[in-house]
Amino acid sequence: xxxxxxxxxxxxxxxxxxxxxxxxxxxxxxxxxxxxxxxxxxxxxxxxxxxxxxxxxxxxxxxxxxxxxxxxxxxxxxxxxxxxxxxxxxxxxxxxxxxxxxxxxxxxxxxxxxxxxxxxxxxxxxxxxxxxxxxxxxxxxxxxxxxxxxxxxxxxxxxxxxxxxxxxxxxxxxxxxxxxxxxxxxxxxxxxx
Length: 193
Known about the structure:
The chain is α+β, with helices and mostly antiparallel strands.
């Protein structure tokens, strides 16, 4: 990642309204912007969890889904997912599928730092082990999907606020993450269609 990487700012309907430097966009008054979340699975249906690096600006050292990020201006979301998975986890993915095209969330850390994102959710399939980038990820672990979902839904697993909101919506797609229906790209926010 370069220091001049920009994120796409959007209005409440998902229309692009400009860009801003990624390094400057997150604060106590974070504008709504485009992001994505990805859930990486192996062929056995195990989910790859990651723990965010301890020096991250938002939710440091927090366990979360596999990888999150921001599309660059003009970048297609599947390409952004693949780019970040390679950068953060050293993964080359076999497939990237849209699951939740309209997911959005706003979360506030104890220190007042805000995340405010339109954040479509993707599934990626891999057949290789991750090699985490320590600039982004402190640790990883594989977990069977049902075990992960059950521990998130029961509150037993301390997980990022976005994953806590995403998991019930993913559970509603069915018990087998490898057979979840693919979302309609026409439902994505206009900024990334």
